[in-house]
Amino acid sequence: MHDRRLVTEGIRVSRIFPKNSRQIAAALGLGVVLFGGLITAGVTYYFTPKYTRVGYTPYQPVPYSHRIHAGQLGLDCTYCHTNVFESPHANLPSPNVCMNCHDPAKGNIKGDSPLLAPIRDAFKTGRPVDWVKVHKVPDFAYFNHQIHVNRGVSCVSCHGRVDQMVEVRHEQPLSMSWCLDCHRNPEPNLRPNELVTKLDWDSAKDWKVSPLTQNTDSQEAFARKMVKVSALHPPTNCTTCHR
Amino acid sequence: MKYVLIILALLTVLTVGFVGLRGQTSRQPPVMVFNDLVDQPKYKNQGESAFFADGRQMRLPPAGAVAWGRTPDKPDPGNLIDDADYYGLKVIPLPVDAALLQRGQRVFNTYCAVCHGGFGTGNGVATNYGMSAPANYHTDRLRQVTDGYLYQVITEGKGLMGAYGPSIKPPDRWAAVAYVRALQRAGNAKIDDVPQNLRGELEKQP
Lengths: 243, 206
What we know:
The structure holds two protein chains of two kinds.
Chain A: H1 2-16, H2 21-46, H3 49-52, H4 66-72, H5 77-80, H6 95-102, H7 117-125, H8 145-150, H9 155-159, H10 176-184, H11 203-206, H12 219-229
Chain B: H1 2-19, H2 83-87, H3 98-116, H4 140-144, H5 147-156, H6 170-187, H7 200-204
Helix pairs in contact in B: 3-6, 5-6
């Protein structure tokens, strides 16, 4: 009696769970783990500014080449971005700066180029050129250019070798963890203030050769001194960047 | 099991195929899902405005505005006194020391050397591209002009030279004037100008 009931129940159970149910469960479990792992990997890889922002190279209304102007001609960054040492915002130049050389009535270097028509129009009408912003931190993060460049963090640390770019390309993620990496250990990114806008200057290679630095010890020693003398301790609390 | 693996592999290939890898050049702005805080509808530096006719979010002071601490006859908010008040000065109104000259060197090499050349002889890099005849500082006329005149030329431009007043702030303009004066002296120097103890190598040269 007792045994019989067990047998009948056993039959019912085996009708619900087929004979290979163990294999199916194993495959299903493995599938979920694999699928979940893949999703996790995808999110980790793609849901970050390293993917979403790096590589952004918008078309600009005027194909201004930093490689020609900053690289080949050797214009200093501040020839156009004049306020970067005195302002939180690194300004784009107004068209009169372009016109110092490209004004058809004055310097007339390529003064009649059709590519420069938006600049000439802006100069005439006062309506600014619609440059497309490439580097952007979220509006709830308040980045301050002047505090960084005046403390010896070069443009190149965040913007890459703009002097080699025909079109400006977003090179660094500008993510919060990326900011914090440097705020926790700023020393590798420090250099003498005079060299901040020298994008081709490489601390590792040029320190012993450059007339400005060859008489000092090394980049590491310089950075340690900077940190000590000017109490350079980049804050890492929230209100540093978020208000 | 085999099918699960094949489906996953396909999914991976499709994803990478459609959205690519990190760091690929993209012409489109970054895709944001929750953009409300990242791109706030507020006026920002050099932003674009749909409201004002000239498209600028940053506004100029209205005509006749007088900055705090100024009088209506000298309303320019940017400078301590109006630029024109400086033009008549014979000498630089700042103490000329090593710091000012170093500042001037940096300003000069940034803004002036492009056309006038690093030594002020009028052979800057822009002349290779068709900029015609920037002034050579080492002439009697420019040695004799006043400091205020050089300041005026920097501020307003002259001939083919554009105005650099918008780019260079007044103290930096004076620093550049000081550096130009230093260049002129160096370009016209006699051996007597060099301190005795530094002459050694110079005197050997013809």
